[in-house]
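Human: Respectfully, please carefully check these tokens:
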Amino acid sequence: MTHDEYVSRDALGLAQLVREGAVAATDLLDIALERTQRLNPRINAVVHLMEEDARRDAASPPAGAPFAGVPFLAKDFQSTYAGHPTSAGSRLLKDLVIDHDSDLVRKVRAAGLVVFGKTNTPEFGLVPFTEPELWGPCHNPWNLDRTTGGSSGGSAAAVAAGIVPMAGGGDGGGSIRIPASCCGLFGLKPTRGRTPTGPDHGQHWRGATQEHVLSRSVRDSAAMLDATHGSTPGAPYEIPAPAGPYLAEVERDPGRLRIAWTARPLLQAEVHPDCVAAVNDAAELLADLGHDVVEDTPELDAQAFAKAFLTMVASEMGADLEDYRGLSGRSARRNQLEAATWAVGLLAGGLTAGEYASALRALERVGLRMAPFFETYDVYVTPTLASPPPCIGALQPPAWQKRVLSVLGAIGSGRLLRAAGGLDQAAADAFSFIPWTPVFNVTGHPAMSVPLYWNAEGLPIGAHFVGRWGDEATLFRLAGQLERARPWFAKMPATAWS
């Protein structure tokens, strides 16, 4: 198989060739490793190789598995692979080897995927861009000076560059959908509770985070959710199993849907004209396909949401640092964490239990108040992001702010950091790039970024589709219809061929 033939097929297409005996899984792995060696120095997507494990798995892929023999990359965060570190983009965990597979990873392996490496991610997935101090910035294959988004930025870059047809991601505030938009890919966040979180966690970020994949085709995402859905026994969230295979939904006509759309941000942000153009284009396409399309949007108290969400995230970061102390037997030191991460951890110490509980209640009310909107509409459409992919470094805190965080971090007082306005400043700045995606992590609705639009600079801009709670089926039907109406699979950046 040539490299051109390899990138011309999605994961299911490669698996079919393996089943038919037209290509060996070991040959696919060789191509994936060759492409990694050739392309990774330019995009910095892959940060850890698992070649020995991968060669063992490729030698005998499980018969009948949907993705048997297909190369795959895992995000270096949350999902754990026995015998390998899960660094979470942090110096703190760089050398901490995990001794067991997570529940989701067991399903990934059972699906026949050959996992040969892990991908770049920002430290603990806290920001929507992938520029960790540990590994360095990940570069967007569409323009190497631009961000891939985050936190699944390494996975997105690897898929966009054709290293693999599909890679793992996790989404706690948009971290599958953000890089999907930046890199011209399909990315779906499942409904809360759809995929397993055990055995070490019952939930991530109080249920805001779900793991799934980024892919070039809709059907790969659907088939992967067929292979991995199902909550961990004892986990706090369980939802009804799907009525049938998601893969079958991709080919079904979605019928005439009632769809609301808007370019108005739910959280405080200025929306770039290219992103407005992208959602206008999506709305016109949906109308042309026969859907009832109405400009409408739910109401949200943006400031209250931002403060409650960041209170939850800071508290979770503080608990994570305690968990890692238990795993490693030592407390985190300031020089092991980036200044912003250390500051977030300190903020947790400056919050009271009552403030944390109040924040969770405020977030729960967002879901309750959003529910009536989805009684009226089947799908809600927005831009995925407030701007096209910015230049690398543009989303970083300014130098003065980093110095302030460093000084306050050295003092080591969460209360002082909070008194200096750390939480309020973060709440004001955090969502300017992502004024839609985090809301639906909190509500638990399934949501997807679909690559329907490229701007005049040749940069991809995703359209964001939110479905009713538990209704990935409608999203997959609609995504399949959009993919047939405006195919994007053959759109690849020049980097993939260089």
